[in-house]
Design goal:
Blueprint lengths: L12 E2 L3 E6 L2 H13 L7 E4 L2 H8 L6 H4 L7 E3 L3 H26 L7 H39 L3 E6 L3 H13 L3 E6 L2 E2 L1
Antiparallel strand pairs: 1-7, 2-5, 2-6, 3-4, 3-5
Helix pairs in contact: 1-6, 4-5
């Protein structure tokens, strides 16, 4: 990864300043991002470092530190995904599999001779394996999300970038990021497209 010389601007990037911070806990990072959104920053203006697989694809087996990637225009980025969104995803996965199993069982029972009790039993029996499978997949998604942040902390912290086009927004972003224990909070003069 390359760090730009002082004052240089990368190619294929826009001239919109960006605030940068490194966080050493998921809770502090999330609180900062929530406060940024409450202050009027769009979720599209906020990004975090990409997943480990993407970093490995770009860096190979090279060891990286968050501090080395703060101002690197080639650092791969991703959108922030909140814990609430992960909870909704987990619920949708588990519920979807329960519904699918129940729907298959109910379809099999759609005969004029089936009774309400038989239909309810079919839904319960058909949905239970689906719910178990859904719960296991949901748990796996949640574990992967937690590991994503744990890996970044092992590499020096969770990087957060925030586009801040005006001096007022730059100051607001720096204040919010620093107020939530962001380390090495600063602004550079460009943003990733």
């Amino acid at each position: 990864m390359t760090k730009l010389p002082e004052g240089a601007k990368p190619e294929h990037y826009i001239d919109t300043p960006e605030a940068v911070a490194v966080f050493h806990s998921v809770e502090a990072m999330q609180a900062a991002i929530y406060d940024l959104m409450i202050a009027g920053f769009s979720r599209f203006d906020i990004s975090v470092l990409a997943r480990e697989e993407i970093l490995e694809g770009k860096l190979g087996d090279a060891f990286w530190r968050a501090g080395d990637m703060e101002d690197d225009p080639d650092a791969p980025r991703a959108a922030f995904v909140s814990e609430e969104a992960m909870g909704e995803l987990e619920g949708a996965i588990a519920g979807g599999f329960f519904f699918l199993g129940s729907a298959i069982a109910m379809t099999a029972m759609l005969t004029p001779a089936s009774t309400l009790a038989a239909s309810v039993a079919a839904v319960a029996i058909g949905g239970s394996p689906g719910a178990v499978i859904g719960s296991l997949l949901a748990r796996r998604a949640g574990r992967a999300h937690r590991e994503y942040y744990a890996n970044q902390i092992r590499h020096g912290g969770i990087l957060v970038w925030v586009r801040a086009g005006t001096p007022e927004k730059q100051q607001m972003a720096v204040t919010i990021l620093g107020g939530h224990s962001g380390a090495d909070v600063h602004v550079h003069d460009w943003s990733e497209v």
